[in-house]
């Protein structure tokens, strides 16, 4: 009897799957016919709007900073799984807020070419798969299943297939057989299994092909694209060629930043550098204090290895975080896994308490595997760390629109100041003062003067690759001024 029940259950399960697959195929066919996907081999579309910098907001509660997209043209070859886009961008935040190459001077051209092969990362392939026509092709090729969901009070037929990263890709088909939304999850070193979705509305007919004229793409809870499509050319003659190889390709070996080096600045103080990012390491009596954790986990691990080489068998007591931009907080996860207490501005407290425990199942990192809780201390305007010998003063960069909770560190005995993002020296020494003065750097100088700090050496987190010593005079030159006590050039 038990065997008969199991056989019957398996038959019913199999029949349910077949019916589901058949129903899914019907929905795919209906949607493909509605938007002309079956006959659409290529497309070229033009748009204007905005794009945004993921993880670079001026506070945890505001959208990613935006740029104006003056023009945008994209060609897609669905048969080849290839795409080419060209856009012209302009400064969008006035006044500036947040990070990522601000201020943007004039018009900046940017392009992207994708030609999918067996080595193309899934997150890159999604640039094509997430388009309505791309999704329907992928749903058909991957034997999508069908379900029904309510979203925002609206009923949808939902097609689902498993992406290459083992996260489901879902397409929401409305009652007009139009693909209105495509969603999935992708890995983000800070946010973990990060929602990634696109909404497509205001479909119009272009020569027998229906195409959305409003495209909004979101990652991490805020838009990264907001485009108004003005022209669509179905089955256009596209020319998508692989870009030429870089003139100076990266040498073989471990990725840049996976090995860290150190320079001793004073007794018990080192600058540790994993190319692109620098931290300060301060040896306290009973523990180590690290000022800033770099970018993603592999850089943080490289720095941890170097710190443990410098100070073996000594625990890291604190990791100081300057602000909430992803490239300045992602690496802190590895330090929290080491048992370090995170110090940050109180503006970030609720956000970090929410984000640090988020699932990292797509690409588990050390902290997700260990499940260690976040230990955190916050500050407002000033916090002092000392063991009676070493002294670190942490200050809020008042008035900065780079991040409302931006802090910098000052070591009064050594006259060293560590800052992040607001002053990143040029690759070449003696570079001229920029044509447009960064108000972020001006804010830092204003705070140094307000606090009457006697600064001699500056450690920018984005340290120049030549390893040269950076001084207060360099910061003043960067804003077109002469440092106090320095002779004018």
Topology:
Blueprint: H1 2-35, E1 42-52, E2 66-77, E3 82-91, E4 108-115, H2 122-129, H3 132-141, E5 145-151, E6 154-162, E7 168-173, E8 179-188, E9 192-206, E10 209-219, E11 222-234, E12 261-266, E13 269-274, E14 277-283, E15 288-291, H4 297-310, E16 316-320, H5 332-337, E17 341-345, H6 349-355, H7 366-370, E18 376-379, E19 382-386, E20 391-396, E21 407-411, E22 416-419, H8 439-451, E23 457-460, E24 470-471, H9 472-478
Helix pairs in contact: 1-3
Fold and architecture overview:
The protein is α+β, with helices and mostly antiparallel strands. It has 2 domains: 19-234, outer membrane lipoprotein receptor (LolB), chain A (Clam), CATH 2.50.20; 261-478, Metallo-beta-lactamase, Chain A (4-Layer Sandwich). The chain is 21% helix and 36% strand. The chain has helices at 2-35, 122-129, 132-141, 297-310, 332-337, 349-355, 366-370, 439-451, 472-478; strands at residues 42-52, 66-77, 82-91, 108-115, 145-151, 154-162, 168-173, 179-188, 192-206, 209-219, 222-234, 261-266, 269-274, 277-283, 288-291, 316-320, 341-345, 376-379, 382-386, 391-396, 407-411, 416-419, 457-460, 470-471. The strands form 3 sheets. An 11-stranded antiparallel beta sheet has the order 4-3-2-1-11-10-9-8-7-6-5, covered by helices on one side. A 7-stranded mixed beta sheet has the order 12-13-14-15-16-17-18. Strands 19-20-21-22-23-24 form a 6-stranded mixed beta sheet. Helix 1 runs antiparallel to helix 3. The radius of gyration is 26 Å and the shape is elongated. Mean pLDDT is 93; it is low at 1-19.
